[in-house]
Amino acid sequence: MKREDLDEFMACYSPANRHVRTPTWSADKPDGRRRMYGYEELIARDKASLDIFWLRDETLADRDKLLPPDVIAQEIVDDLEAALEQFRLIAGDVGRYDAATG
Fold first, then answer.
1. CB-CB contact of 12 with 24 (8 Å)
2. Quick one: pLDDT at residue 47?
3. Does the pTM of the predicted model rise above 0.70?
4. Cβ neighbours of residue 11 closer than 8 Å, sequence gap 6 or more
5. HSE-up (13 A, CA, CB side) for residue 89
6. Residue 75, CB half-sphere, CA atoms under 13 Å: how many?
7. How many C-beta atoms lie closer than 10 Å to residue 64's C-beta?
8. End-to-end Cα separation, the chain, in angstroms
């Protein structure tokens, strides 16, 4: 992944322009990633709830299926270390990009 791979996302989702965002998707540009929907269009859909209850981990409801706390803690540590390594790589890439572009 390169910095330019995120350019469209950064342009669309920058906090500085959040009130003037424009869609990049249209019938003529079906590859655009940003599409806007009006309230009426969203509410007319089946299951229009914005609640993400469907992402709930069902194993959390049954305490007998939970992993031991030390295993959960180690998984969290492993995930954080992996994420930190990815951020280090990204920071290195950004540093090289900035140095190259001045």
1. yes
2. 67
3. no
4. 17
5. 8
6. 6
7. 5
8. 21
